[in-house]
TrEMBL record:
It comes from Diplocloster agilis. Signal peptide: none annotated. Keywords: ATP-binding, Nucleotide-binding, Transport. It comes from the Bacteria. PROSITE patterns: ABC_TRANSPORTER_1 (PS00211), ABC_TRANSPORTER_2 (PS50893). One of its GO terms (molecular function) is ATP binding. InterPro entries: AAA+_ATPase, ABC_transporter-like_ATP-bd, ABC_transporter-like_CS, ABC_Transporter_VariousFunc, P-loop_NTPase. SMART domains: AAA (SM00382). This is ABC transporter ATP-binding protein. The keyword Methyltransferase does not apply.
Amino acid sequence: MLEIQDLTKRYGKNLAVDHVSFTVPNGKVGILLGPNGAGKSTIIKSIAGLLRFEGGVGIQGISNRELEAKKQFGYVPEIPAMFDALTVREHLEYIHRAYGVSVSEQEIMDLLTRFELEDKQDKLGNELSKGMMQKVSICCALLIRPQVLMLDEPMVGLDPRAIKELKQVILEQREQGVTILISTHMLEMVKELWDVMFVMEKGKIIGQYTKEEAKDQDIEDLFFDITGGDEG
Ligand SMILES: Nc1ncnc2c1ncn2[C@@H]1O[C@H](COP(=O)(O)OP(=O)(O)OP(=O)(O)O)[C@@H](O)[C@H]1O
């Protein structure tokens, strides 16, 4: 379970996130929706422990400031970052050792194959395209077998096959009980994935729906109902 309590973040005088609270239950996919600058990435970075903020974040009931919580979540940032001097394979090795997770050669190969990286294993971080870096970043997040998985605009920059694979991965992870939070402004990409949606505007959550509440309504219609027709 992922619990955000009264999260507030200011960048200087700019109030980027304004007393936001929400919960993504175990084994559910939560979607943070909203236009550019709404505060989605700031929330995800705060949960990931990359920013100082006011308020509380619970990961599987543990504060995100605790090491125990940090070990339980995987994070795919909006802009992938890699070590220039490590190969793709070395990134995966580094991550699973750092997290103390035992991973078989077969599991590594399966992941690399899934994201069409098997022939890129020996490429250095600085030799990869943005989309390839994004795929490595997804593989790293999955490798640690997270209980909570956060993906910030994960479909941007991926080719159609990788998008299809990623959607499949998200559904499989959910099936295994992993709690997932995805930030996006691309409604189309998360249509089949969501269980609970949170619509943000100017640092606040202005509306939310669960799949049950929405009945058969399309996520796009719900989004425009909440935002009064503004494009996300
Ligand atoms: N490092 C920073 N320093 C100062 N202000 C920032 C910084 N990062 C974000 N902001 C501001 O915080 C607000 C929220 O930005 P954030 O990146 O969280 O939005 P977002 O919803 O993720 O947008 P996008 O969809 O474009 O990624 C914006 O007003 C932005 O200008």
